[in-house]
Structure formats: C-alpha cells, structure tokens
Amino acid sequence: xxxxxxxxxxxxxxxxxxxxASAWDAVVHHSPDGWAWALSxxxxxxxxxxxxxxxxxxxxxxxxxxxxxxxxxxxxxSHKRLASSGWGLTGxxxxxxxxxxxxxxxxxxxxxRVNEVAQACGAELIELG
Length: 129
What we know:
Number of strands: 8
Order of helices and strands: EHHEEEEEEHE
Largest sheet: 4 strands, antiparallel
Radius of gyration: 14 Å
C-alpha cells in the first residue's frame, strides 16, 4: 500500500497491521461514526475464522501525525465482495475532531483508496455502512 495519497495530500495511508490497537480503538470510541464492528478486537476475531475466508485490507489515515480515520476493510474472494468489517456493517470511522470541510476531503481520499483495493482484488461488490 502506498504511504502517500499524492504529493499534495496531507494524508498518509497506514496498513492496520502497523496501527496500535489502542490508537485504532480510540478513534472508534470517540467518533460519531464508531461502531463495535470497527473495533480492533472484532477485526481480529473475524479474520481468525478460516471458513469466512476474509482477507484484510484495513487501513488508517494519518494527518499531522495523528489518526484522522480508520477503515476496517476485508475482501471475501468467494463472494468477490469488499466490505467494511467483513459484511458492510460499518464504514470509514473519522475522528471526531476532523472539521466538516476536511471530512469531505478525507472521505474522498478514503473512497478512492477503497476503489483501488476493490479493483486490485477483482471485487464485484463494495459494501460500506
């Protein structure tokens, strides 16, 4: 995964595997977008079930050396589906302190990345809550 969205972007993409679980969960807990299905423990649980066959593509977005958003994202090859938290029950979780105007820009970058992942995986369906 590229660590930069563009040379002009203030946002840095970080694979979930490189984000501390407590930092990930802090964004989820303090965001109006937060759901239990986005917490790091749930992510570990669903990825550990072999029968579900989920491939993790989750990522965080950093801005100014802080987590601005976390995005649970898994691909299920058997259904050619890319979904947030495995089944589309959640979506991008944006930090509560991101301004409304920055939120719009940040969501645009997140959706662009989700589309890139979907194309790379061969997903025929994207599900975000």
